[in-house]
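User: Predict the full complex structure for these chains.
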Amino acid sequence: MSAEPILITGARVLDGEPADLLLRDGRIAAVGAGLDAADARVVDGTGLVALPGLVDLHTHLREPGREDAETVETGTLAAARGGFTAVHAMANTDPVADTAGVVEQVWRLGRESGHADVRPVGAVTVGLGGEQLAELGAMADSAAGVRVFSDDGVCVSDAMLMRRALEYVKAFDGVVAQHAQEPRLTEGAQMNEGELSGRLGLRGWPRVAEEAIVARDVLLAAHVGSRVHICHLSTRGSVEIVRLAKERGMPVTAEVTPHHLLLTDELATTYDPLYKVNPPLRTADDVAAVREALADGTIDVVATDHAPHPVEDKDCEWDVAAFGMLGLETALAVVQHTMVDTGLLDWAGVAERMSYAPARIGRCDTGDGGAHGRPLAEGEPANVVLVDPSASGTVDPRASSSLSRNTPYAGMKLPGAVVATFLRGRATFGGDAAAGGVS
Amino acid sequence: MIRHLLSTADLSRDDATLVLDTAEEMAGLTEGRSVKKLPALRGRTVVNLFFEDSTRTRTSFELAAKRLSADVVNFSAKGSSLSKGESLKDTALTLEAMGADGVVVRHSASGAPYRLATSGWINANVLNAGDGTHEHPTQALLDAFTLRRHLGELAGRHVVIVGDVLHGRVARSNVLLLATLGARVTLVAPPTLLPMGVEQWPCTVSYDLDAVLPDADAVMMLRVQRERMHDAYFPSAREYSRRYGLDARRFARLADDAVVLHPGPMNRGMEITADVADSDRSVIVEQVTNGVYVRMAVLYLMLAGAANDGARDERRSERDEVGGAANDGARDERRSERDQADPSAQEETT
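Assistant: Here is the predicted structure of the two-chain assembly.
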């Protein structure tokens, strides 16, 4: 896909000194001051921060099966608007992405849509049933080149099965991404267990149900010498376990969602299922803990857990509503609000947590031309996002590119705006009318 | 008076006292009379929206509304579209379109009445008749009414509530209301049947029923389902009864003027023995009678009370802005009718 060359002028790469970036033939042809390229379309990057294209390790695109909630096309459009150039599509589709056939279908749909690269996640067990390993090797060897395996939505709770999965994926450098939720402790669970769940009469989802699995799995991963990744870590206790595991050199990585960086269980007092999510929103103390952990590197990445649901699955009683919230389009703004504007993380840190690290964990940081999470340097793939950190806007669900509207941030004022996203040198969002216009 | 009754936490001490005093008036106007009907809610429509079976609560609300001359419609999960999976929202929109003034809702999901009241689907006053494991405000009000009739003012009185607090909505509503009224509450249950954070509730907690009984002015026994033993909340029904049941031996530990309550339906032999349930200090049957008075009071105060006009609030004026002037006349008429309605001034004459 060869697009016209683009010259981004005066953008601050990772918030550094203003520089020009020349994108040509899908790569960054040059970085420096006062670049000149007569044939290039100029995008004025003055006042903007240039980051490497963001990589989401945790996205629900819903296709195949729930095209009423999201499709690969609409989900990747939302990704591009949010500054993402690659997303990892979770396996809990219908049919489940547990065979080479399904992951290749999702991968191909991503190629056809072209708004962001789609990296399918393979299911760990057949049908997410937690009983029999899916054909992990076949998915790894398929055109989709799966490296991340997860039963997300369901915990691989059987310790023996988890051990085997961790061992098995070593053969192709895979990683098991665990949805840490002890099932017996969370039967019928609706919200964080605490004083508030008792008061509201909503069945509690205790922190220990997450922490017990996190503890078990870091020990299992260390025991078999394989990589485990903790999905949507949500509690202070999980942070402490992962911190200890990392101190001991155990092979664990972890992600936090934007909503767990910002929102708390107090929102459940509205009984509005927009705030129903799994794992549930926790307390202000947990929010403080995950922010600190993201700042100090205990938590490696921010992943959206973008979970679209049609209106009828949220416009109902809390108990029967679906779990999940949109996240792709608001992730960077929430991270700026909670981490950058608070001084916990600089823009280089954002690049690490939202681009380099997720690409490394997903093993999509290498490969000729198709790599993500690479530095903005000469010769690298031209995956770039331009951000205006001084902008701010009110979240309007109707303006979303997603097919769904279940954002918990509706009406909330958040800082920052993605101005343009480039995938291998081609604008997937903005870029033709970027701040200050185009010559 | 508040616009919706969703939680006893929404009631100030004045609100709660007003409900209890009004219930006393309702009792005075109907108790012992052959014609037990008042015209206060004539022309109003009350819908009993029951997503969960509860013959006694529904009947009590129905009787209360009928004694106030309201038109009552029962909308229950059985024999209606609810059992076919119609959503709460569509049901609400249907009731709104039919012109319901008050909706009494019972639902297995905590917060469902709150959703009805706040989602903008419906403009009627919403009364929570029990939602999931959350609250059952009118039960707490009728319990307080019953207690007040026997103990006088509740400030400083000690009420012991025993049983499944975790899954029960009655205990929650009672703790909040009794605290508002100044009573002292002790919850007694096995630790497995107490919710997280109960230590932050305005009450004390004990695991030892024998120890707290001598100091109680009233003891309220909650229903405990035998099936809870299958989820390991307690080892067996027998063990539960031995440790937390009210039998004759424990009953003897109570002060002579202490009373025994139970919201029903009782599990005789589980949380309460037959001899205690049927004793002359058991006020369990009275609670049922009082339930009608309290529900009359609440319906009257919410649907007919003059104070209600102020509370019919911003949403109404919002709607006025949106809906234009056409409806305003009709609404004003209804308001002035309401102003006239006063249960002590008018009695059913026909």
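Chain A has two domains: 6-50+378-430, 53-361.
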